[in-house]
Amino acid sequence: MEAEELLKRYELVKKYTEGERNFTGINLNEANLSRINLSQANLSQASLFVTNLSGANLSEINLTGANLNVARLSSANLVRAILNGAILNVANLVRADLSEAQLIGTSLIRGELIRAELSKANFSKANLTGADLREARVTQVNFSQANLSGANLRGVSGTGANFELVNLHGSDLTKADLNGADLSGADLRQANLSQVNFSGANLSGTNLRWADLSGANLNSADLHEAKLSGANLYGANLTNASLAKASLVHADLTLANLIGADWDGADLSGSTLSGAKLYDVPRFGIKAEEITCEWVDLSSNGDNSQVYRFGSPEESKKFFNHTPPTVKIIVDSVLEHEANCFLATIYQQIAQYYPVVCRPPSIEASYRKTTLTFIIDSDEHLMPAGCIAILPFYDAVITQKNVIALARNLQLQNIDKKRIVQLSTAMNEGINKINDLKKLLPLLNGEQKNKFFQAPTQTILKNSSEHTLTVQFNPNFGKRYLNSHPHKFTLPNGNKFVEFIESFYYLN
What we know:
Blueprint: H1 2-17, E1 276-277, E2 295-297, E3 307-309, H2 313-320, E4 326-331, H3 337-353, E5 362-365, E6 370-375, H4 382-389, H5 396-408, H6 417-440, E7 457-462, E8 468-473, H7 494-502
Parallel strand pairs: 1-2
Antiparallel strand pairs: 2-3, 4-6, 4-7, 5-6, 7-8
Helix pairs in contact: 4-5, 4-6
């Protein structure tokens, strides 16, 4: 048998040396071709079952449709090789170089690609079920629609890899570095993704049910509409991640870092959130029934310097099920086109200088009244936002005086000192902005000639727990056919004001 293998090798080398490159359909089963040079040869449809090609130079070779089952290709040079539709089940490709190789539809079931160089290779629709790719380099590899179920990808590294619509069910990617990878629509059910770097990755619509993402880096990752039911996200970094409309039913988010994350429309029913870092995370429009959460970290740096503890499940439920704070200005006048155009212009300019009022108001215009509603991101900015939202109206001055009077009384109230500091800081910033806006925006100076802006108004604040506080009510409101009355309004009593402030759920 050894003599026969030597003869095969000799004849092949001889023909190749003489310039022949076409070896289509050749039978080289079990031959020892280690370290052979067959660069740019055509071995399409060849039979290379159990063939030893370790250390061979197979760069730019054509192995389309070839049978390489159980072949030995360790440390082989397969740069830009064409292996489309080839069969390499249980093949040994340890440390092989497959850079820019074509493996479309190739079968690599239980193939060994440990520490292989796969950068820019195309594995689209390939079958890598149970394959071993530990510590392989997968930079910009195209695995789209490939089957990697049960594969071992521990420690793989590669920026910008394409795993779109890939089957990774039950695979192991522990400590993999897939920064900026595209895994949209992939199946990662029950996958081990512990300590994976998914920073900036696209995981939109990905199925991650019961996956282990403990300690994973998902900083700025796109997980909108991802399926994360039952997933383990213990200690995961989800800073600035998008979780909009994601399903996190019964997910474990214990000690997860969600600073700046967007989970609008997410379903958190039955999830665990104890110790989660939630600074700058609006809790509007989420579903959070029957959650488990003993405490959350609301500090800006996630250093537990501002811990919020819940005394009961009911309290945590209320914390995670609140509505956006709003400033509502009711104008006792019909909105006409001229006034509407002015409002659009002035609020656009205000938003540039005071981003707290960054959203244009929703406008409800009836036959008698007009209601402007501003959505604010956090409770502590409600009072200064009210002062600024009213700026275009004649009632602005009295509204601001009322709010400032309430703010000055903060120090006299029995309210947590941290809250007083935060409210006072937000209020001072708002007052400074009012002065700046009056200097920078000429449209705010002087009385508005349009009657709409001279009409009586009401200013009502509603916090995230749906407590309301009227900070200005013009006594002439609704009395347009009666004589004018002096502008007097009794401020809310101290108890009502304290109740309104204490019902704030979080203060950044």
